[in-house]
Automatic annotation (TrEMBL):
One of its GO terms (cellular component) is membrane. Residues 22-42 have a biased composition (Low complexity). Residues 22-44, 479-533 are annotated as: Disordered. Belongs to the transglycosylase Slt family. This is Transglycosylase SLT domain-containing protein. It comes from Variovorax paradoxus. CDD domains: MltD-like. The keyword Metal-binding does not apply.
Length: 533
């Protein structure tokens, strides 16, 4: 009986093994397809039994091998972690990098101040970089340019945390007028800076060269590359001959990157920057005083200005500044308070287009301001007339119901011409000089010459007699203010530069020679690299 039971058991096992290894033509085809497509069929089947290839395995070709980005399940702990995950630029190794690392590491207070300042802007910048698939190291560039101060302005007149020159700002649609300067605007300047960096990367195909061009100008970098090519030399960033500022530019960024990547190695402490938007945009529907806007949003005035640094004047014009930035939790507070506001006008200031050329005193009288207040508010220099068509910020009367138009808000400018001043001068009378001859010589009225010297209109002067005349003297060359930042702005031949020669006659640097004024012009300021930007 035991033998019969054992035989039955062996037979059943044999039948089960045969059933498990039997394949049909259809299953064989499925197995082959699965081996070719890398198991796609089994994935589609979902709950179906796994299918194993029946044929020999073959190696894949190099063209079939490719890497896939690994998706990290855990979200970034903070913005520093998020920035580290997006590093893409090759590291620069040099003594200059070590030198800059020591410079920053030995100034913990400086690092603390500028990193705390960046808290308001970092999330937005990293979001834009990731959206464009750009290296997140570039989010650290404002540390190098401006220490993340959106109000920063260089000696060469580069402005904002991305340090745009006036001409380059215009090239990238950053408006600059007496009401606002978009080179300081957080959102607009970030958009323009990333557009410019992308353009430079497409030109040079290398991020280090693109950064050199951002600092020095693409024309300068192109010429340096061409020079090395003619000499048969390498054309990397480290091999080019460039100014000291540009030579240190990428090492500075690399040093900051190294500190962010491993702050413990440099005994640095980075303040927490949450992986969350700091601000959101709010549409501005009415002209609004800056102080009232901060009050309605329940934020400090300095915090409001830090998020809206483009505004020059004490009033925001809805037709020009269509959106303002507010801390995330304060946007709803502002809207609720704005809708409920019933304490008078939203704006106590407005824009007035001067109908004809006039003195500052006349303009002050017509606007209801003191001359000193009008000068201070509109940055009017002394001894100047306000030219017709200029735009001034003046008090808004209770009867004014309309906000400033888009035309004025977008194209408002302030132009001046020298005020003519009559200056008392004595001249020596020559042989046969008379009231009439001197009047003809200096294009004066004979009656005036006679009155100034207490003589008759037909009087003849003795030779060598000191004759008193009042001659017109121009106070200074004509000036035009476009963005509240200085004199008229011309565009230079370099991409990020502009002519900045300023006449100094307004400061009294005027010499006389042969009865003619000679205006002394001062040299341009700023470092050579900045001027070429």
């Amino acid at each position: 009986m035991k033998f019969i039971a054992a035989a039955c058991l062996a037979g059943s096992l044999l039948l089960a093994g045969c059933a498990g290894t039997t394949t049909t033509p259809s299953s064989s085809g499925t197995s082959a397809q699965s081996a070719t497509t890398g198991g796609t069929a089994s994935k589609v089947a979902g709950s179906a039994a796994p299918v194993y290839p029946g044929g020999p395995l073959t190696p894949i070709t190099s063209s079939e091998a490719h890497s896939q980005s690994v998706v990290t399940l855990a979200p970034p702990a903070d913005m520093w972690d998020r920035i580290r995950r997006g590093f893409k630029m090759p590291n620069l190794e040099s003594d200059l990098v070590r030198d800059r690392e020591q410079w920053y590491a030995s100034r913990p207070d400086y690092i603390q101040r500028m990193t705390e300042r960046s808290n308001k802007y970092m999330f937005h910048i990293v979001e834009e970089l990731e959206r464009r698939n750009m290296p997140t190291e570039l989010a650290l560039l404002p540390y190098i340019e401006s220490a993340f101060n959106p109000q920063a302005i260089s000696s060469a007149r580069a402005a904002g945390m991305w340090q745009f020159m006036p001409a380059t700002g215009t090239d990238f649609d950053l408006k600059q007028n007496i009401f606002r300067d978009d080179r300081r605007d957080v959102v607009a300047s970030t958009r323009a800076a990333l557009d410019y960096l992308q353009k430079l990367y497409r030109m040079f195909g290398d991020w280090q060269l693109a950064l050199a061009a951002y600092n020095w100008g693409e024309g300068s970098v192109s010429r340096a590359i061409a020079k090395n090519q003619r000499l048969g030399l390498p054309t990397t960033y480290s091999d080019l001959s460039m100014p000291a500022e540009t030579r240190l530019y990428v090492p500075k960024l690399q040093a900051v990157k190294n500190i962010v990547a491993n702050p413990q190695a440099f005994n640095a402490e980075l303040p927490l920057i949450a992986n969350h938007p700091y601000f959101q945009t709010v549409t501005l529907t009415r002209d609004l005083d800056v102080e009232l806007a901060a009050k309605l949003a329940d934020v400090r005035l300095e915090d409001f200005r830090a998020l809206n640094p483009a505004a020059h004047k004490p009033v925001l014009l809805a037709a020009g500044t269509q959106q303002i930035l507010l801390p995330w939790d304060n946007a709803a507070v502002f809207q609720r308070n704005f809708d409920a506001y019933s304490q008078g006008q939203y704006a106590s200031w407005t824009a007035w287009v001067v109908p004809n050329t006039m003195t500052v005193a006349d303009a002050a009288q017509r606007s209801g301001m003191s001359e000193s207040d009008l000068r201070a508010l509109n940055s009017i220099p002394p001894r100047m007339l306000i030219k017709a068509g200029s735009t001034l910020i003046v008090p808004r009367g209770a009867r004014v119901k309309e906000d400033v138009t888009a035309l004025v808000a977008d194209s408002g400018h302030l132009s001046f011409q020298p005020e003519i001043v009559n200056r008392r001068t004595t001249i020596k009378a020559g042989r046969n000089d008379s009231v009439a001859s001197i009047a003809r010589r200096y294009k004066l009225a004979p009656a005036n010459v006679a009155e100034w010297n207490d003589v008759k209109p037909n009087h003849a002067f003795k030779r060598g007699y000191s004759v008193v005349v009042y001659l017109p003297v121009r106070a200074a060359p004509a000036a035009r203010v476009g963005s509240g930042g200085g004199q008229a702005r011309g565009r230079a031949s370099t991409k990020r530069g502009s002519s900045a020669v300023k006449a100094t006659a307004a400061r009294g640097n005027v010499t006389k020679s042969s009865g003619k004024q000679q205006v002394v012009r001062e040299k341009r300021g700023g470092t050579p690299a900045k001027k070429k930007r």
